[in-house]
Specification:
The complex is a heterodimer.
Chain A lengths: L14 H14 L14 H9 L5 H15 L8 H14 L1 H15 L3 H6 L23 H6 L8
Helix pairs in contact in A: 2-5, 3-4, 3-5, 4-5
Chain B lengths: L4 E2 L3 E6 L3 H10 L6 E4 L29 H4 L8 E5 L30 H5 L9 H15 L23 H14 L4 E2 L37 H7 L3 E3 L3 E7 L5 E7 L5 E11 L2 H11 L25 E7 L12 E5 L15 E6 L4 H10 L9 H8 L3 E8 L8 E9 L5 E7 L3 H20 L3 E6 L36 E3 L14 H17 L7
Helix pairs in contact in B: 1-6, 1-11, 4-11, 5-10
Classes of the chains: A mainly alpha, B alpha/beta.
Organism (chain A): Microvirga brassicacearum
Protein name (chain A): Gluconate 2-dehydrogenase subunit 3 family protein
GO molecular function (chain B): flavin adenine dinucleotide binding; oxidoreductase activity, acting on CH-OH group of donors
């Protein structure tokens, strides 16, 4: 459960909205024991999600309210099976809003150190080290050269 | 009413510091005229670009979003795009769209300038490939273009430096094109592959379209502008022009603008040059309506704002069993001009190019995988992600958009920017010819990916958030009734007003326009210099 707060800032989710998002994120990306991976509701990841909503806040609120409306109250009150079924209906019925919840969640999940390492990435930003890309086999262009000119003269 | 401060006059006033404004400023600098450029945005700071932080993908949907409406920064003006199936992408600041482009740098083809004569559609340009050829070459040198000479899809042209790497993706897709017997070639890219004029070589950040922190990509804030400023061109940032003023002789006298403090000023000038892109330029011209020019400035033809062309894009992507380049390297590696020239058997006039792209970062892999139904929620998520990440490749088709007057930029009667200047309103729909071209490109794209051995192939057509290329809204031509500017960029109506951005395009071609926009700007600069003693006759 999400701790409640005495005051609700207009530029962040309310405790009830946070609770709904927490529930949705737990269904979207659960932890994996097999891979040793956290889920999207891991405390560090979820805290990152909450502080990184940015310009998606109005659309995210709309999505969370739509889910609450579909549930007839707090999503967390439903059983896990009921939650899963409702979220499946939400995704197929409101793909635009589902896309917002997904974007807000994966933007933070896939920059977590543990997740990046797990998918084979170095835990760092691209700059200043950059990456290596092989030149490739330039001889593959021989058939293109052999075919000759393909542009049209316009004179 | 607040009084308007009147500045010291200048010889040349350039409005907009993007691709074309930078090129013409640099070229005119050798005249020793007093040149001033007003730019509504600021200098980009490479240390702020997304690739410098761990939140590199997230920031591309915040302050570094391609959508000005999403960004909503002080430099941006709102755009009403409700009546357009394609949404606008731009960057407002020094460098303009070149800060956010991928550096993919094709030229138009010779046939693009003669579409009426060759294919019976639209209109011929009043200039041709041969006219622009030396300016394309000069621009390649100034921007620093990496390429491989000998592309059979073009007349011969020199390479400035070696091309960007094919990588595993280029090999994979190039091999598929060879199987099909179709043209492909490493892209001309405005990306330094070696030390070049003080710029460091590309280190494969994979972040060309969100600003290059390395400075390897040729945005004009790191190419033309430093040279122009050293040559004493003055560039004033955070100055937004609202309208052009004229006198009884129907000559432009200068421009009104809002300075960084929001104070309105008047900048007198002997010559005014518009370089604000295919939306910003008609916006200012239409907002400059007066008793002398009731339909907007330079608009006796009624064509200012009309014939708006984008390049409708279709995107086709697939996934492979073996790892490819993923998020590493310039996103675009090769192109194909196989379907560029008109073939009556295809059921449409003109054509398109493909630009082939490498993979996506982890966040975009997840968001697109979720949207495409390839990445489930729940326990299967992790395994499915691993089947997608660093294993995708594909292409977009860039389809030639024919000019139609119904596609246009007007002034929104209600929406305004933070300075109270009316916002542009876009009215646009995809024409039948273009739709057939999009459909053709999707079908051929799927064939290519299948030939490459891809699975899980998806496509989007048209791509909605792909209005990068803004063309045609102040077209050039010989006939003042059918064009806004003449063959060298001067307004038919206002003899000291020039336009050098994508607005002047008569047709769009089927390739990215930046190389041509800059070649035209250099050509117009050359015309101004060679005609300087009778420029207004």
């Amino acid at each position: 459960m999400i701790a409640s707060s005495q005051t609700i800032a207009l530029d962040e989710l309310s405790p009830a909205e946070q609770e709904t998002l927490h529930c949705v994120a737990s269904h979207m990306i659960p932890p994996s024991e097999e891979l040793g991976l956290p889920g999207a509701t891991d405390p560090a990841i979820f805290a990152d999600i909450l502080r990184s909503i940015g310009r998606d806040l109005p659309a995210l609120r709309q999505a969370l309210h739509a889910i609450t409306e579909m549930a007839g109250g707090p999503l967390a009150v439903l059983s896990s099976i009921e939650q899963r079924a409702l979220l499946s209906r939400f995704r197929s019925g409101r793909p635009d809003l589902a896309g917002v919840v997904e974007a807000v969640t994966v933007r933070c999940y896939y920059r977590d150190d543990r997740v990046m390492s797990s998918v084979g990435m170095e835990v760092r930003p691209p700059f200043p080290v950059g990456f290596a890309v092989p030149q490739g086999d330039w001889s593959l262009l021989e058939p293109v050269r052999s075919r000759g000119k393909i542009y049209r003269d316009a004179d | 009413m607040q009084s308007v401060t009147r500045n010291e006059p200048v010889d040349v006033l350039i409005i907009g510091a993007g691709a074309s404004g930078a090129a013409i400023a640099w070229s005119l600098a050798d005249t020793k005229m007093r040149i001033l450029c007003l730019e509504q945005g600021d200098w980009p700071r490479s240390s702020d670009f997304p690739s410098t932080g761990r939140d590199w993908e997230a920031r591309q949907s915040e302050d570094y979003s391609i959508s000005p409406n999403r960004r909503g920064l002080a430099a941006d003006y709102p755009i009403n795009e409700d009546d357009s199936s394609i949404k606008i992408a731009n960057y407002n600041g020094v460098g303009g769209g070149t800060v956010f482009y991928a550096g993919h740098f094709p030229r138009l083809h010779p046939s693009d300038f003669r579409v009426r004569s060759l294919d019976g559609v639209a209109d011929d340009w009043p200039i041709d490939y041969r006219t622009l050829e030396p300016f394309y070459a000069l621009n390649d040198q100034m921007m620093g273009v990496a390429s491989l000479a000998g592309d059979p899809a073009y007349p011969p042209k020199d390479a400035v430096m070696p091309p960007i790497p094919l990588g595993r993706t280029g090999e994979k897709l190039g091999s598929a094109m060879n199987k099909l017997g179709w043209h492909w070639w490493p892209s001309d890219s405005a990306i330094s592959t070696q030390e070049y004029q003080g710029r460091a070589p590309c280190i494969n950040l994979g972040h060309c379209p969100a600003g290059c922190a390395q400075g390897a990509k040729a945005s004009t804030d790191v190419t033309y502008w430093p040279e122009a400023v050293r040559s004493r061109v003055e560039l004033r940032t955070r100055c937004r022009v609202s309208r052009i003023e004229t006198n009884d002789e129907q000559m432009a006298t200068g421009a009104y603008y809002f300075d960084p403090d929001g104070q309105e000023r008047f900048q007198p000038a002997e010559i005014v040059i518009m370089a604000c892109n295919g939306i910003g330029t008609p916006r200012i011209l239409l907002n400059s309506a007066s008793e002398r020019f009731p339909g907007g400035l330079a608009n006796s033809s009624g064509l200012v704002g009309k014939n708006l062309m984008f390049h409708p894009y279709a995107q086709i992507r697939g996934h492979f069993d073996e790892p490819l380049d993923g998020y590493r390297g310039p996103p675009i590696c090769i192109w194909s001009m196989e379907f560029y020239e008109t073939d009556p058997a295809r059921g449409f006039k003109r054509g398109y190019c493909y630009q082939f792209s490498r993979g996506l970062g982890p966040v975009r892999t997840a968001t697109t995988g979720l949207a495409d139904g390839l990445l489930p929620w729940g326990d299967e998520h992790h395994a499915a992600f691993r089947r997608l990440f660093c294993r995708s490749a594909g292409m977009v088709s860039i389809c030639e958009d024919l000019p139609e007057e119904i596609n246009r930029v007007t002034l929104d009667p209600h929406l305004k920017d933070i300075n109270g200047i009316p916002a542009p309103k876009i009215t646009y729909r995809i024409g039948e010819n273009t739709q057939r071209m999009l459909d053709h490109s999707v079908a051929r794209g799927i064939e290519i990916l299948k030939a490459a051995g891809a699975r899980d192939i998806t496509f989007k057509s048209p791509l909605p958030y792909a209005g990068w290329h803004l063309m045609g809204t102040a077209r050039m031509g010989h006939d003042p009734k059918r064009s806004v500017v003449n063959a060298w960029g001067r307004s038919h109506d206002v003899k000291n007003l020039f336009i050098v951005d994508g607005s002047v395009f008569v047709t769009s071609g089927g390739v990215n326009p930046t190389a041509t926009i800059q070649a035209v700007a250099l050509y117009v600069a050359d015309q101004i210099k060679s005609r300087i003693y009778d420029l207004f006759n």
